[in-house]
């Protein structure tokens, strides 16, 4: 399980590192820090070296903090846990390696003796608070963006739904091939999550494959992943999403937009161009 979590985390980080928006944000933050020169870097370094310092430090602390947060949260909580607790644990988990990286990085560049314990503790607290804030804001931004653009699955709120905006349904009575006939797509997955295929979602150049045992990112096109799903009866409901029909447990309309529910918490958007096919399949 830990190998699968590490594999998935590394894949997710690889996607981020190849995303233009990530580098745009990294350069923007480094430029601001390079111009303002906090923590004494304004006096220690000239403008270009100062920018390079913050760019390098931001990159390596991101890698260290991201790995620590994702692995710790995955091991401790999985997909469960309330957000405030997850945020606090994420901050502490990232604070340790980030503090160590900053200390080693500064020692390599500037030399000097080991800082007093009080200064190290202060640095750890600052790093942990920043990491916790980034984790919390990233979660909020990610949820908001997913609902707004309909490009990714969103978690259904635990309350606030009424019979007017949510439809309960049983799995559609559509004949399908036995799930025991393993699709070729399964051969691309880590052994620990090879199972019953639930849905596929496009994430940049990757397809996020979800089974009843977990999820992982696979470098391929969504159209190729759907083809490799083989005889499993499924339907493309959005340019970024495909679902196995027997994984759908309900539907819901929100702000005039149609969503399909899978399991207890995943909501996938249905685009207008695919709404008729969804209706004909008996999903709404």
Summarize the structure in words.
The chain is α+β, with helices and mostly antiparallel strands. The chain is 51% helix and 18% strand. The chain contains 8 helices and 10 strands. A 5-stranded antiparallel beta sheet has the order 1-10-9-8-2. A 5-stranded antiparallel beta sheet has the order 5-4-3-7-6. Helix 1 (2-17) packs antiparallel against helix 4, helix 2 crosses helix 4 and helix 4 (47-76) packs antiparallel against helix 5 (83-110). The chain starts with a helix and ends with a helix. Residues 140-180 have low confidence and may be disordered.
Distinctive features:
single chain, 284 residues, alpha+beta, five-stranded antiparallel beta sheet, 8 helices, 10 strands, 51% helix, 18% strand, elongated
| Rg measurement, Å | 22 Å
Helix content: 40-55%
Task: Tell me the number of strands.
Answer: 10
- Distance from N terminus to C terminus (CA atoms, Å) equals 36 Å
For the sheet with most strands, the description reads:
5 strands, antiparallel
Average pLDDT rating: 77
SSE-based structural type: alpha+beta
Strand content: 15-25%
- Put simply, the count of helices is 8
Low-pLDDT residue intervals, each spanning 5 or more residues? 140-180
Q: What shape does the CA trace take?
A: elongated
Strand order of the largest sheet: 1-10-9-8-2
List the secondary-structure elements in sequence, H or E: HHHHHHEEEEEHEEEEEH
Care to give the gist of this entry?
The chain has helices at 2-17, 20-36, 41-44, 47-76, 83-110, 117-149, 222-228, 272-280, and strands spanning 154-155, 166-168, 197-203, 206-211, 214-219, 234-238, 241-244, 248-254, 257-262, 266-270. The protein has 284 residues and is an alpha+beta fold. The strands form 2 sheets. Strands 1-10-9-8-2 form a 5-stranded antiparallel sheet. A 5-stranded antiparallel sheet has the order 5-4-3-7-6.
């Amino acid at each position: 399980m830990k190998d699968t979590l590490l594999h998935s985390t590394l894949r997710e980080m690889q996607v981020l590192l190849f995303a233009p928006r990530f580098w745009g944000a990294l350069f923007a933050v480094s430029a601001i820090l390079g111009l303002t020169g906090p923590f004494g870097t304004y006096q220690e370094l000239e403008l270009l070296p100062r920018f390079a310092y913050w760019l390098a430090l931001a990159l390596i602390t991101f890698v260290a903090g991201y790995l620590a947060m994702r692995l710790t949260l995955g091991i401790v909580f999985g997909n469960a846990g309330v957000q405030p607790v997850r945020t606090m644990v994420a901050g502490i988990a990232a604070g340790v390696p980030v503090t160590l990286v900053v200390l080693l990085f500064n020692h390599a560049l500037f030399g000097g003796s080991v800082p007093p314990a009080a200064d190290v503790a202060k640095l750890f607290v600052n790093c942990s608070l920043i990491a916790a804030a980034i984790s919390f804001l990233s979660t909020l931004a990610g949820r908001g963006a997913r609902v707004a653009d309909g490009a990714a699955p969103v978690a259904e709120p635990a309350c606030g739904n009424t019979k007017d905006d949510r439809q309960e349904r049983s799995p559609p009575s559509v004949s399908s091939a036995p799930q025991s006939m393993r699709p070729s797509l399964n051969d691309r997955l880590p052994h620990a999550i090879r199972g019953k295929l639930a849905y596929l979602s496009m994430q940049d150049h990757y397809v996020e494959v979800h089974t009843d045992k977990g999820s992982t990112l696979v470098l391929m096109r969504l159209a190729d992943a759907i083809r490799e799903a083989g005889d499993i009866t499924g339907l493309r409901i959005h340019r970024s999403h495909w679902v196995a029909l027997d994984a759908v447990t309900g539907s819901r309309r929100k702000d005039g937009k149609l969503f399909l529910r899978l399991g207890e918490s995943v909501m996938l958007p249905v685009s207008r161009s695919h709404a008729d096919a969804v209706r004909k399949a008996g999903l709404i």
